[in-house]
Automatic annotation (TrEMBL):
Membrane-spanning parts: 6-37, 58-79, 85-104, 145-162
Alphabetical list of InterPro entries matching this protein: Anthrone_oxy
Name of this protein: DUF1772 domain-containing protein
Keywords: Membrane, Transmembrane, Transmembrane helix
Top-level lineage group: Bacteria
Pfam families reported for this sequence: Anthrone_oxy
Length: 165
């Protein structure tokens, strides 16, 4: 296996693992933890989390899972290192599911929460929470599972590439 392909696979694996951990962590701790909050405080908590999560550490894992998976696929094709290619493609597709789910579902819900403005001035925080919570949680589960499966696929790709070398 070429060194560059190995580096791309490891980087894809690590960034996918970061996203799998983050999204599943929300599923089993953050969302159940804030579920006890009243509606106004629940909205405030999500607004604050959504503001602070957009940072370099998050974006490097979020975008890196796609970029490194794509790089590993391309390198696998062009370096004629195809033993791991089916698993690498599976990892890329699964990372795309998590990425697209985030962009298409979770981000618009985050934007809706942010657009509500100051929670102290919200006329009906219960309606906003009812509109957002169940869908946000469902799609968070989807992206968490997708990234976990991407992590597994990329681990198999790395193993397959190593044993084929």
């Amino acid at each position: 296996m070429e060194l560059l392909h190995l580096i791309a696979l490891i980087a894809a694996l690590l960034s996918s693992g970061l996203m799998a951990g983050l999204f599943t962590g929300y599923s089993y701790s953050v969302m159940p933890g804030i579920a006890i909050l009243d509606d106004r405080n629940w909205v405030a908590a999500l607004q604050h989390i959504n503001r602070v999560i957009i940072n370099g550490r998050f974006m490097s894992g979020f975008l890196g899972s796609i970029a490194f998976s794509l790089a590993a696929v391309v390198l696998g094709i062009f370096l004629d290192d195809r033993a791991a290619l089916p698993w690498t493609i599976a990892g890329l597709v699964l990372n795309l599911v998590g990425f697209i789910g985030t962009i298409a579902k979770n981000v618009p819900l985050n934007d809706k929460l942010e657009a509500a403005g100051d929670v102290a001035a919200l006329a009906d925080p219960t309606a906003l929470r009812t509109e957002v919570e169940a869908t946000w949680i469902k799609w968070n589960h989807v992206r968490g599972i997708a990234n976990l499966l991407a992590l597994a696929a990329l681990a198999l790709a790395l193993y397959t590439a190593g044993t084929a070398a």
